[in-house]
Amino acid sequence: MEKVEFKVIIATHASLCEGYLDACRLILDSEFQAVDSLPFKANMATEEYEEKLQGLVEQSSAQPLLILTDLLGGTPTNIAAKYSHQKNLQIITGINLSFVIEVLMHQENGMKLEELNLDEIIENAQKSLVSVTKMMRGGNIND
Asked: How many angstroms separate the CA atoms of 102 and 7, rounded?
């Protein structure tokens, strides 16, 4: 494995972030040492979640950081947005497993955050959302 050039924080409601990371570990057969997951758990105070995210962002300040969240307008995204002014930091919301896999593959291959074509990765992830029923019944998946 080459040197990891950027860190990733997956911040979601409940254990979704841990599920994404576990699935990526299974599919890509890697431990992803430069990826943290931060679940916003039931009954967790917003202030507690904010402190935890702040700690992870501060730990990552030495290298570029990509924060991935699950839902626009949700607590993880709203708190992450407070860091959007920081240089060398990107925030993407509405992620799916296909998106996370592609990002982590590039991370593992030593790509720099500024080299990632995030718009293209988002487009690829959007295309991964298809109706299998329609596809299997002979319909066009892009209709």
From this structure: 14
CA gap 36, 115 in Å, rounded: 21
Class of domain 7-136: alpha beta
C-alpha dist (Å) from residue 125 to 45, 93, 95, 119, 128:
31, 12, 8, 10, 5
pTM: 0.94
Average pLDDT value for residue range 6-29: 98
Domain boundaries, the chain: 7-136
Q: Report how far apart, in Å, the C-alpha atoms of 54 and of each of 48, 76, 90, 126, 134 are.
A: 10, 12, 15, 29, 44
3-state secondary structure 17-31: HHHHHHHHHHHHCCC
Task: Read off the amino acid at residue 64.
Answer: P
Strand partners, 12: 39
At 142 the pLDDT is: 60
